[in-house]
Amino acid sequence: MSAAERSRGPQGSRGLRGFVRDNALGLFFLIAFLLSLAGQAIAGHADFNNQLAADQLQQISLGEYVTTSDFAVDVSENWQSEYLQFFLYVGVTVWLLQRGSPESKEMHKAGTESDQDQLVGAHAKEDSPKWARAGGWRRAVYSHSLLLVMGTVFLLSWLVQSITGTAAYNEQRLRQLQAPLSWADYLGAADFWNRTLQNWQSELLAVASMAVLSIYLRQRGSPESKPVGAAHGATGVEG
After folding, report:
1. Cβ distance 161 to 196 under 8 Å?
2. What are the Cα distances from residue 131, in Å, to 56, 79, 118, 155?
3. Assign residue 180 a region: left if phi > 0, alpha if psi is -120 to 50, beta otherwise?
4. What is the mean pLDDT of residues 18-25?
5. What confidence score (pLDDT) does residue 189 get?
6. Is 76 exposed, middle or buried (0-12, 13-18, 19+ CB in 10 A)?
């Protein structure tokens, strides 16, 4: 065995290191998500028990809290706003451009672009996805699959928010000896739209800030930034 082979270690070790390296970005955000979710559960549990204590009601365990509608609505209302952000961003950047932003396509590429540019049909390569080489409905679906999935997850999480939000809101009303609302009535309630819009406005502001600030500001080595020396007017250029 050569010195180079010995330095690389066992095959399994190389495989694990290679997997982590090849998937580091996804793994980082998955772990960060799980830690944040756990932190939200712990903090939400403490806050929920504080409310129960103030109402002179029996407190609950952490395990019981994560199965409550209060926890579910807090999670789902954030998920739906995040997926709305990506749904809109994927969709509107097909046609809407921002001169000088790396988050925008080049100014002459507005629209769905040609089959040659998109490497579909007769222009597909050997390693292109199978449905990109196909025709008819399969290519049509695959051509919009990212937008379809983002939109579906957004709608489903918004539906979950509305259902769990109804349950959580009615629990509060019952503690105050008020009649519960139906799901349809809750959709028109201020609580539902307050939960919804406070998340939407923050996500939309963040996207707008990223698109505009990246025209003038840089982060060396980041694909979300233009090269440090790129002109402010350079559009669709990533570092």
Report:
1. yes
2. 60, 29, 13, 26
3. beta
4. 93
5. 95
6. buried
Q: How far from chain centre, in Å, is Cα 163?
A: 21
Q: How far apart are CA 97 and CA 105, in angstroms?
A: 6
pTM over 0.70: yes
- How confident is residue 74, by pLDDT bands cut at 50, 70 and 90? very high
CA–CA distance, 77 with 219 (Å, rounded to integer): 31
Start-to-end CA span in the chain (Å): 40
Q: How confident is the model at residue 10 (pLDDT cuts 50, 70, 90)?
A: low
Residue 203's contacts (CB-CB under 8 Å, 6 or more residues apart) are 81, 82, 84, 85
Between residues 14 and 57, the one the model is more confident about: 57
For the segment 94-113, what is each residue's pLDDT rounded down to a tens digit?
Answer: 999 999 999 999 999 999 99
Separation CA 60–CA 202 (nearest Å): 32
List the one residue out of 136, 132, 135 whose CA is nearest residue 124: 132
Q: Could you read off the pLDDT of 159-192 as tens digits, one per residue? A: 999 999 999 999 889 888 899 999 999 999 999 9
Of 211, 210, 216, residue with least CA distance to 232: 216
Q: Which one, of 66, 69, 71, 81, lies nearest residue 193 by Cα?
A: 81
191/142 Cα distance (integer angstroms):
38
What are the residues whose beta carbons fall under 8 Å from the beta carbon of 129, sequence distance 6 or more?
142
* Cβ contact 222:239 at 8 Å: yes
Angle in degrees, CA 121, 127, 131, rounded to 5: 45
